[in-house]
Design brief:
2 copies of one chain form a homodimer.
Chain A: E1 7-13, H1 17-29, E2 32-38, H2 42-51, E3 56-57, H3 61-65, E4 70-73, H4 80-87, E5 96-99, H5 105-111, E6 120-121, E7 124-126, E8 147-150, H6 158-170, E9 174-177, H7 180-207, H8 213-218, H9 224-230, H10 235-244, H11 246-269, H12 272-291
Parallel strand pairs in A: 1-2, 1-4, 2-3, 4-5, 5-6, 8-9
Antiparallel strand pairs in A: 7-8
Helix pairs in contact in A: 4-5, 7-9, 7-11
């Protein structure tokens, strides 16, 4: 789709799963004249240099953003405010400043006050990920067929939003624009609450007296393992998400608890009809997700099976 | 591994995901001289005949078990008692009677009183599955590298248990023997509670006023979709499981609720340290599951990605 670089110089602050995947995909697609990156630890910077994916690895955020036309903060949401404060005096006039955080209202609140007039602030959230983190975890295909949500604050120039949309589209994503507040409600139910529940149940399993951890691990194919994947996500990132999107998460949690009480009561009372009715309804949502290509319908989630050969 | 049929005639009562997978794998491995099956609906029986996987499809359970050396009930656990009562007078002396139910104590309680002396009752639970059901959903590789738990009641002849172990091993499974009661506790945490939670959260998402169903479906890649798979499992089967394993499920649910309250309180109070500590601990369990081959460590769960080609 792209016919050349969309930005002359792209700066990535942070080179974890998302930063590393943006770099790989942008380079493969030729979307940036030059890609500069930095990372907080010397070890990560060294590893990024070895990987040879970006043009330059620098030591400081200030150095990284110098003359960049697009700056993307690929760091936990709690770090976005301080980094905005740090780079504010060094941004190129006309540059687009973005991020990849999973919460948007708090990022806007934390970053916007620091940003100078003359730069364009277009927060973004690519809804894609794996449970892996670190400089080696990224891959160019991560964003293909996934949504990227842009949440430009009121007053943002439409041209800047469109330019960032073109960039994400070229990375393979489908782009949607909404307000930061609505984003946070949507993600509270589609992502944050599922993660909280998964973290809880994996912790519960770990603490049981009657069943050993080794039994939990062995027999996890009965459903449990699907929870462990998301409960293995980056701890710092998720701590920040729950602190930053507290209100929406607590609201969804309230509804979830009411629904869980209803199902619990049905089990306690032996109300098979209520259970059957509920379980039948939830199948329809799954079908919707598979139909629009957001998951595989292959048996067992597309997990590979060994072959059983005739003996 | 097998060097010929383990049983002369195998009868499968029910031909859904599990029954159909047993038939396919047993035929591929040559584990049965003859495979007979039946299914409750005429439509399923017709489809099984078309598939041509078994030697004979019969109309009644009584006909199916005639002269069978191994009879496996591949039906929802709630139906096991009535079917045992139906077939009891027609079992071959010395036959092994088994099932594939996800709950074991209640199946033993429901079936054992009906079974005549001279047959061997060895309940089984293959811990494997997908969210699909019906005669077309099975596949021969379903049990490879998955555990199958045998729960022979006290007094069962060891020879019968070993013969069924050999059968499941030849289907590709790893076999473990435990009491029905311990099985039910282990599965309550590794399978039943995860399903209940998944059914709940998918229902919650479906009812929200602030976020539309179409938004939930679109942005499900953030974690939600992992829950929808197990919440799309067969409703009748799962109704029966929760009714049959009520006590163990309610016990695990109590512990889960306490843990969820703790995490909720940490979020409400902004206690980042408590969250980080919990999220770090849960990563270890995931590593254990991947290490012993019960899940894929491939990015994004092994879901296939399209290629991003250089433009």
């Amino acid at each position: 789709m792209s016919t050349g670089p969309i930005f002359d110089r792209v700066a990535l602050i942070g080179f974890g799963l998302i930063g590393g995947s943006i770099a790989r995909a942008a380079r493969l697609q030729g979307l940036a004249g030059e890609i500069i990156t930095t990372a907080r630890s010397a070890k990560t910077r060294e590893r990024v240099m070895e990987l040879g994916i970006v043009d330059r690895v620098v030591e400081t955020n200030v150095e990284a953003v110098q003359d960049a036309d697009l700056v993307i903060l690929c760091i936990p949401v709690g770090a976005c405010g301080p980094v905005a404060a740090e780079i504010t005096g060094h941004l190129k006039p006309g540059a687009i400043i973005s991020d990849v955080g999973s919460v948007k209202a708090s990022v806007v609140k934390d970053m916007a006050p620091h940003l100078p007039a003359g730069v364009h602030f277009v927060p973004a959230h690519p809804v894609a990920g794996t449970e892996n983190s670190g400089p080696d975890s990224g891959f160019a295909e991560l964003f293909i067929n996934r949504w990227c949500i842009l949440t430009p604050p009121e007053g943002t120039e439409a041209k800047a939003t469109e330019k960032l949309r073109a960039f994400w589209t070229a990375l393979g994503a489908k782009v949607e624009v909404m307000t930061p507040e609505h984003h946070d409600l949507v993600l509270a139910i589609t992502s944050h609450l599922p993660h909280l529940i998964a973290y809880t149940i994996v912790g519960t399993a770990d603490e049981l007296a009657q069943v050993t951890s080794s039994e939990v691990i062995k027999f996890s194919a009965g459903g449990f393992r699907d929870f462990t994947r998301i409960a293995a996500s980056d701890p710092t990132m998720w701590r920040d998400i729950f602190l930053a999107n507290k209100d929406a998460v607590l609201e969804m949690l309230g509804t979830f608890n009411e629904d869980l009480s209803k199902l619990t009561r049905a089990i306690r009372r032996g109300d098979g009809e209520a259970l059957l009715e509920h379980f039948t309804r939830t199948r329809a949502i799954r079908r919707g997700i598979v139909e629009i290509g957001q998951d595989s319908a292959a048996p067992d989630f597309g997990r590979p099976h060994q072959q059983l050969t005739k003996k």
